[in-house]
Amino acid sequence: MGNDRPIRVACWIKFLEFKNCVHNSINASHHKWKCPGCRQSIIFWGSKKEIPFAHIKTNLETMNVDKEVFFDWIKENC
Fold first, then answer.
1. Which numeric CATH code is attached to 7-64?
2. pLDDT in tens, 16-59
3. What's phi and psi for 8, nearest 5 deg?
4. Is the pTM value of this prediction over 0.85?
5. DSSP class of residue 49?
6. Are 47 and 57 in contact (CB under 8 A)?
7. pLDDT in tens, 47-59
8. Could you tell me the residue ranges of all domains in the chain?
């Protein structure tokens, strides 16, 4: 699995829900979520079908989640 491939929005949302994150709001095309223990909100383009991995990577860093852990989760759940 390539580390730079886009991630489907539905899969990303499923991961956020798995991590007990809560959807706060939608501002234009950006969705805003708050995750337990995160220093800032998780923001992404919810109006698109896929999210560029660079955006996912930044949000994973905010969540303190290793990208390999995320890829392993995707293999099992998406």
1. 3.30.920
2. 999 999 988 877 778 899 999 888 989 888 777 899 999 999 99
3. -65, 140
4. yes
5. S
6. no
7. 778 999 999 999 9
8. 7-64
Q: If we measure between CA atoms, which residue out of 33, 4, 1, 40 comes closest to residue 19?
A: 33
Angle in degrees, CA 14, 20, 25, rounded to 5: 75
Question: Taking the chain, what is the end-to-end CA distance rounded to the nearest angstrom?
Answer: 13
d(CA 49, CA 26): 16
According to DSSP H, which parts of the chain are helical? 9-18, 53-63, 67-77
Residues 63, 67, 73, 75: is their CA dihedral positive or negative? positive
Q: Which residue is associated with the tokens 């959807």?
A: 23
